[in-house]
């Protein structure tokens, strides 16, 4: 019956077939994207509670020849499945370090780069970073690597993160509170920064208070870790977070991800102020 064109499974097969074809096509195009210089990095500014610029998160974009500017959700899964995330991740790291070594040198600003599971499992990541950092003489504490919580449970991860920290790279725990987070990990693992997921401050769109966010913030502060809140979309949230004493804010209300030129223009504005 599945062969009958109107059978629900036949429909599924056709859709799945098309999806597979699309994935294959994307993989082919992504393979060429690096060589054709179609990948971009965007920077989303991070501010302290006094409104001073303190750094940025590096976010990957793909200037696709036909589909316009693609966000990571459109192609990072394909990159991960195909293994292309490794060369892409290496490229992104090199670009980020070049920014720190060049236009950002002396600015005191930090860059945070997302690192996927596959990259962290790659034994050469630490060597790559070591080579890049020493070639460019980046002072410790200016490069932050963002990892998601679930990664910390993988065997051998602790040792790997320790090696990164020994290079002067800081570790941020991304999307905190959405995964396996166990408070125990926070104490046992050596991370420098916690990024509180947007979901925790979303209730502030409707309510005056966000008790869960409030208590997590208090806890992270007790541990003495740097706390970044992401997904800040309103002035009300900023007020709340300022009162709670978080360290850094990131979100559309303050600034959207932007091309490096726009971000660097902020430095000139800052110098002129
Ligand atoms: P993430 O690490 O949680 O990054 C934050 C995402 O939230 C970004 O989406 C950013 O544009 C978005 N965002 C920032 N402020 C707001 C806000 O106020 N409201 C809302 N609704 N969204 C906000 P983006 O750039 O689409 O990235 C999505 C995810 O893709 C990232 O989530 C990260 O997991 C992944 N990603 C991005 N760049 C890279 C990369 O270079 N390598 C790897 N492996 N993954 C990356
Ligand atoms: Ca991130
Ligand atoms: Ca995040
Ligand atoms: Ca996320």
Automatic annotation (TrEMBL):
<protein>
    <submittedName>
        <fullName>EAL domain-containing protein</fullName>
    </submittedName>
</protein>
<feature type="domain" description="EAL">
    <location>
        <begin position="23"/>
        <end position="271"/>
    </location>
</feature>
């Amino acid at each position: 019956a599945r062969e009958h064109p109107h059978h629900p499974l036949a429909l599924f097969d056709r859709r799945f077939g098309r999806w597979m074809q699309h994935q294959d096509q994307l993989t082919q195009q992504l393979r060429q994207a690096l060589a054709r210089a179609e990948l971009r990095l965007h920077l989303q500014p991070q501010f302290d509670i006094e409104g001073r610029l303190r750094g940025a998160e590096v976010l990957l974009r793909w200037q696709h020849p036909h589909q316009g500017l693609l966000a990571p959700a459109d192609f990072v899964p394909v990159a991960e499945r195909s293994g292309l995330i490794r060369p892409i991740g290496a490229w992104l790291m090199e670009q980020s370090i070049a920014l720190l070594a060049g236009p950002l040198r002396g600015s005191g600003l930090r860059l945070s780069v997302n690192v996927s599971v596959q990259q962290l499992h790659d034994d050469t990541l630490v060597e790559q970073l070591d080579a890049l950092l020493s070639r460019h003489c980046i002072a410790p504490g200016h490069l932050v690597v963002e990892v998601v919580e679930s990664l910390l449970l993988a065997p051998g991860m602790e040792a790997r993160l320790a090696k990164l920290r020994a290079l002067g790279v800081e570790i941020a725990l991304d999307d905190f509170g959405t995964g396996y987070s166990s408070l125990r990990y926070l104490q046992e693992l050596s991370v420098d920064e916690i990024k509180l997921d947007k979901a925790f401050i979303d209730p502030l769109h409707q309510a005056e208070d966000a008790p869960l966010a409030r208590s997590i913030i208090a806890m992270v502060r007790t541990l003495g870790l740097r706390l970044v809140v992401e997904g800040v979309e309103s002035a009300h949230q900023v007020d709340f977070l300022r009162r709670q004493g978080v360290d850094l804010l990131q979100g559309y209300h303050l600034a959207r991800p932007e091309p490096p030129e726009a971000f660097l223009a902020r430095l000139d504005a800052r110098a002129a102020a």
